[in-house]
């Protein structure tokens, strides 16, 4: 097998940690013995647990000596809740390390240099683009100093998110709604506007169908032989933080988003009246900004301070338009139902576009059926590519 094939397997392994590793990255590792046979593999399953390299090295044992390690992210060179992975690779006697993506975190980077100084052959950039796509939330957080934001919406084919009388349940199918809960389970925070809270009274929780063991929920994946990868188990994923953007402090105490199923943060404008939410939610005050009401970049900075790496934006069209206008949306996931309304609320509100030349351009990343619907995934096209 080629370097690319082994790295692709490492990328597959890394995906099994999606939803449980935050604020750490997802990482996969494959270890070959000196003859080129797979000796061990592993992934980082949860924050505070053993890193992918350590899991794979434990599985490989003495067979790792003189072998090769394929890692989706540069081995760390610092001591946090676990020791440096670069040191673990050295102690195991690994002779060659193949890395997909260099670590952009200055606190952890340097593992490749340490390995080279001790005579280990290190090659980088193998399937880098593919590995970056899998780890885009964490990489965005480190590089931009704010959480990665995915805007999710559901609409008819003519772009309506609600009928003329305001009803919206249910535009899309049960299969699409189940897929939304998968997205929620993978996110660190779910953000909605006060308009959505008042109109729909959502809980904004992540619910799994009974018996669902999808790897994205945090369960360990299977090795090619069908056995669980070696490791220390998987910790339960923390429930996503629920965030209500409520500039004028109108969230009612009876709102279901204030129940005890998950923690809630209510973001209000700094000049809003006091919000008597008692112990139901934490309130954070941010500068008032137009058109939406609060400083959205300031909100993301506050969430970043709380180690929130990924945000799922489920607010209504006005909030989504404001995020898009400010360049704060990194991915769009749209669920399109084969239905037509002809009237009613649009899925997206004003987003700063006055003429076609100002259109927010995106590129499709994935198109997948979800029951009778289509799930479309797209990312903004970088300005340099326009």
Tell me what you see in this structure.
With 386 residues, the protein is an alpha/beta fold. The protein has 2 domains: 3-137, Cytidine Deaminase, domain 2; 146-205 and 240-385, 3-Layer(aba) Sandwich (Dihydrofolate Reductase, subunit A), CATH 3.40.430. 24% of the residues lie in helices and 22% in strands. The protein has a 9-stranded mixed beta sheet, with helices on both faces. A 5-stranded mixed beta sheet has the order 2-1-3-4-5, sandwiched between helices. Helix 3 links the parallel strand 3 and strand 4 (96-101). Helix 3 packs parallel to helix 4 (111-117). 46% of the residues are buried.
CATH class of the largest domain: Alpha Beta
Cα gyration radius (Å) = 22 Å
**Contiguous runs where pLDDT drops below 50 for at least 5 residues:** 210-236
Number of beta strands: 14
Content of β-strand:
15-25%
Reported for the largest beta sheet, the result is: 9 strands, mixed
What is the CATH T-level topology of the largest domain?
A: Dihydrofolate Reductase, subunit A
Strand order of the largest sheet: 10-9-8-7-11-6-12-14-13
Distance between the termini: 38 Å
Which oligomeric state applies? single chain
Mean pLDDT: 87
Q: How many alpha or pi helices?
A: 10
CATH superfamily of the largest domain: Dihydrofolate Reductase, subunit A
The helicity comes to: 10-25%
Count of discrete domains? 2
